[in-house]
Amino acid sequence: MRHAYTVEQVRSAEAALMAKLPPGTLMQRAATGLAVAVSNFLGRTYGANIVLLIGSGDNGGDALYAGARLARRGARVTAILLSEKVHAAGLEAFRLAGGRVDTSDALAGGRVGASDDLADADVVLDGIVGIGGRPGLRPDAEALVRRVEQHGVPIVAVDVPSGVDVDTGETPESHLNAALTVTFGTHKICHLVDPAATACGPVHLVDIGLDLPPAEVQSLQADDVRALYPVPHGESDKYSRGVLGLMVGSPQYPGAAVMATAGALAGPVGMVRYVGSSSVGQAVLAEYPEVVVGEGRVQAWAVGSGISTSGVDRDRFTRLIQQDDVPVIVDAGAIGALGTKHSARLVITPHAGELGQLLGVPRAEIEAGRLHYARTAAEERQLTVLLKGATTVVASPDGTTYVNPIATPWLATAGSGDVLAGLLGAFLASGLDEARAAALAAYLHAAAGTLASAAGPITAMSIAHALPAATRHLLSS
Ligand SMILES: NC(=O)C1=CN([C@@H]2O[C@H](COP(=O)(O)OP(=O)(O)OC[C@H]3O[C@@H](n4cnc5c(N)ncnc54)[C@H](O)[C@@H]3O)[C@@H](O)[C@H]2O)[C@@H](O)CC1
Ligand SMILES: [K+]
């Protein structure tokens, strides 16, 4: 499991550890890991041109000490100081190691004389601000960063890309985009949650020995998927593996029922029941003769995919969400039919627009604050939210939050959400709790999409068809 923490949690873990260690130990651990990561990124150190952007805090200190190490190993390292006050011991160590300080007018509001250094750089280290920074780049920093971008020089962010909001993953002000982020001790929320996660690029974690409490945000890894997946055993039968009821698709959108069925049957469920209009049921049977059409006992329901809000059978839907023994996935049109009361365990699967409608918030605001709004909806409505998007967020009413670590933009294709609803239903019917079922479904859906895509376009059915292979690969690796 990958865990992400708030700044406050990181600071208190750091303080507890620092109290037990000689002064400066943690910064040295961080700087050593950073220097190694930069060498690996470059593929060489000797002869490399490295520029450091140095702000006023310890984040700049990390960059200066790492710069000193790289200079000692033969790199040409230049520091551009963005503040009159920088980490003094770090600067001294940097100078002693042969590092150059660019004394041109970097401080004079962006009239940067460091053009040669920037143009010739192989990499730029962003030590402007770390977890102590407020969101946004100041004008001098912004001018420098834009110059770096113009020259096409990759940036390695120290701890976090300067300018992002570390605790929310939001980017309300200007920020930089890193080719790699090297972080220390643990992941922070901005490393996992978009839009900041995209600004981080790949994230490399350097262990500095922190002891941390339960995480704010978690992200399943392949070994978690293996551990959680409900693999059938010798005594399993189709009923004990779980029966999923699908109330999805409509004469207008019959394909949604076929795609949700495809997703469900490629999951861990033992049996799928279809309940809906007979023409849609026929379409499902034509593709999947193993489906049972008609009422019967189920362990979970998926409702709403391919049904407009006005097309939802309100009486039936209200009865479903008022019973408390079977969890219900509420997708697409059914999200719009949701009232404020329910007693069933619910998972809603909105995209940003649908969540915006539910909360009365513009879509753009949801996109900019995905973690916040997913959590708000989960807490206020007492249900689990799977917020679809480039990185899927799963938030449950008890605060448990997962972010899906893998994604391919090719997943954004018609019917992809129907496959996901079916797959999620299969995990719920097999007995997993809502948050884990949603996190597993998001992971495998993205893994199958990535496999099917191979960096090219995909259809929803190809995602469903790739699910067994993606699952096999994960379970056997
Ligand atoms: N505390 C620790 O034990 C460790 C901290 N480490 C490093 O220390 C960093 C945190 O250091 P600090 O707490 O000194 O804080 P930062 O270095 O993140 O920045 C705080 C400083 O930046 C200024 N500032 C705030 N917002 C700004 C903005 N938008 N633009 C420009 N300047 C801004 C503040 O006035 C303050 O002087 C971590 O991110 C990490 O890189 C590492 O060395 C690991 C150990
Ligand atoms: K930084």
From TrEMBL:
Catalytic activity: (6R)-NADHX = (6S)-NADHX; (6R)-NADPHX = (6S)-NADPHX; (6S)-NADPHX + ADP = AMP + phosphate + NADPH + H(+); (6S)-NADHX + ADP = AMP + phosphate + NADH + H(+)
Keywords on record: ATP-binding, Isomerase, Kinase, Lyase, Metal-binding, Multifunctional enzyme, NAD, NADP, Nucleotide-binding, Potassium, Transferase
Protein name: Bifunctional NAD(P)H-hydrate repair enzyme
Domain YjeF N-terminal, chain residue ranges per copy: 10-216
An example Gene Ontology biological process: metabolite repair
Residues the entry annotates as binding (6S)-NADPHX: 58-62, 130-136, 159, 256, 306, 351, 418
Quaternary structure note: Homotetramer.
Entry function: Catalyzes the dehydration of the S-form of NAD(P)HX at the expense of ADP, which is converted to AMP. Together with NAD(P)HX epimerase, which catalyzes the epimerization of the S- and R-forms, the enzyme allows the repair of both epimers of NAD(P)HX, a damaged form of NAD(P)H that is a result of enzymatic or heat-dependent hydration. Bifunctional enzyme that catalyzes the epimerization of the S- and R-forms of NAD(P)HX and the dehydration of the S-form of NAD(P)HX at the expense of ADP, which is converted to AMP. This allows the repair of both epimers of NAD(P)HX, a damaged form of NAD(P)H that is a result of enzymatic or heat-dependent hydration.
Lineage of source species: Bacteria, Bacillati, Actinomycetota, Actinomycetes, Propionibacteriales
Name of the gene: nnrD
InterPro entries in the cross-refs: Carbohydrate_kinase_pred_CS, CARKD, Nnr, Ribokinase-like, YjeF_N_dom, YjeF_N_dom_sf
